[in-house]
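Tokens as discussed.
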């Protein structure tokens, strides 16, 4: 048991948050895909040994519910005795493993101190190219997941510090721009090591038990601050629904509906009654749905601290399997953000009348991803760029809407400059 004073705990807590921020900058500076280093389409950070989010550096608020899911996918698949220092794992499974669509690839690394697993570093980044029938691994007319690119079902990419060359070779053989894709892989691996080094430096300075105690206090603080904010929330049951016009294959419309129940210390979002999963690629998955709820929840509650697992303890997400919000294999998910954005917006719609000072009217309703692909007329080298596009946000009770903005779920992403 740690005997650290409150000042030491506070220093460690802030250092843990700073690790997520440093990892974020490291990936921005080393990645190969413009959608990562320019658009900032990624999330990165730390969890504790059980997979609870400690800190996260976010370009995409919509990734706020994914890193802990990726860590848990490793722990569910591999016995702890089979996880060793220097190991790294890779996953983009949309139906588990903290996945969204195949382009959003997670890498996870255990952090050991004196042979004890004390934490995990993790990231989730949009790799520009992971194969599939269309360049950029986006398929507006895909009818099954197999058309959308390579699937990594939570496999070991580094074994005790040594890269799994067989997996690397498979990736290189199945993507259009292997140099870019493998560059992103190595950048993601490097940033995990940055997080590991920084965490172990804290342990070296303050001791293992003191650091682990500070982690637990950070999570408890997140929960306490969130619960305190509930005093200012309306209590009751609130309903809303909206439609997505079609799925890329001519089917639709599809309904997304929600019942939000706020009580003392509980925030329940129930999407029962939403349409069944679509034939086209607009399907969201459970992980993406949980992220949408967390995204709106943090904006509504405003606990005044960086997000961690403690902040999310009051949340409960309900939705049957096999809906457009919780699609099952082999449903296509390239444009999962259509349903994810809709899920976030219906929560805002349900609560807008009772929280007018915290919520706005509906937004543009899509990430509007654009793919540019072709060949250089001189060198014949293939080029490929993926980036989100902008639209408009709804007005607030005391302000006009914003124009020329990415969807709210894309947060601090930027457009890619012409240069």
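Sequence:
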């Amino acid at each position: 048991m740690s005997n650290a004073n409150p000042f030491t705990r506070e220093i460690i807590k802030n250092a843990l948050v700073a690790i997520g921020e440093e990892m974020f900058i490291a990936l921005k500076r080393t990645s190969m895909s413009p959608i990562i280093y320019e658009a900032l389409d990624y999330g990165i950070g730390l969890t504790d040994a059980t997979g609870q989010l400690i800190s996260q550096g976010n370009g995409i608020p919509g990734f706020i519910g994914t890193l802990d899911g990726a860590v848990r996918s490793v722990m569910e698949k591999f016995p702890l005795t089979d996880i060793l220092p220097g190991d790294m794992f890779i996953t983009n499974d949309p139906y588990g493993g903290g996945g969204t669509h195949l382009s959003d690839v997670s890498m996870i690394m255990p952090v050991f101190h004196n042979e004890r697993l004390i934490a995990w570093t993790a990231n989730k980044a949009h790799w520009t190219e992971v194969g599939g029938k269309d360049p950029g691994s986006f398929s507006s007319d895909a009818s099954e997941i197999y058309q959308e690119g390579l699937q990594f079902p939570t496999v070991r990419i580094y074994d005790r510090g040594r890269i799994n060359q067989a997996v690397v070779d498979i990736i290189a053989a199945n993507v259009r721009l292997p140099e870019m894709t493998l560059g992103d892989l190595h950048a993601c691996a490097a940033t995990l090591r940055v997080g590991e080094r920084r965490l172990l430096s804290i342990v070296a300075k303050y001791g293992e038990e003191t650091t682990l105690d500070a982690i637990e206090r950070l999570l408890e603080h997140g929960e306490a601050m969130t619960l305190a904010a509930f005093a200012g929330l309306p209590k009751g049951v609130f309903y809303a629904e909206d439609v997505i016009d079609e799925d890329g294959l001519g089917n639709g419309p599809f309904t997304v509906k929600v019942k939000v129940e706020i009580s003392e210390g509980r925030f329940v979002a129930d999407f029962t009654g939403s349409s069944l999963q679509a034939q086209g690629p607009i399907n969201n998955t459970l992980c993406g749905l949980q992220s949408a709820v967390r995204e709106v929840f943090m904006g509504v509650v405003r606990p005044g601290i960086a997000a961690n697992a403690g902040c999310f303890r009051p949340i409960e997400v309900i939705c049957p399997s096999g809906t457009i919000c919780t699609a099952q294999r082999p449903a296509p998910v390239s444009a999962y953000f259509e349903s994810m954005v809709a899920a976030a917006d219906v929560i805002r719609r349900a609560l807008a009348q009772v929280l007018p000072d915290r919520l706005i009217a509906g937004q543009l309703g899509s990430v509007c991803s654009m793919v540019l692909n072709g060949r250089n007329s001189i060198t014949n080298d293939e080029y490929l760029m993926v980036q989100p596009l902008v639209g408009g946000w709804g007005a607030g009770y005391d302000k006009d809407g914003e124009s020329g903005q990415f969807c709210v779920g894309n947060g601090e992403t930027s457009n890619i400059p012409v240069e």
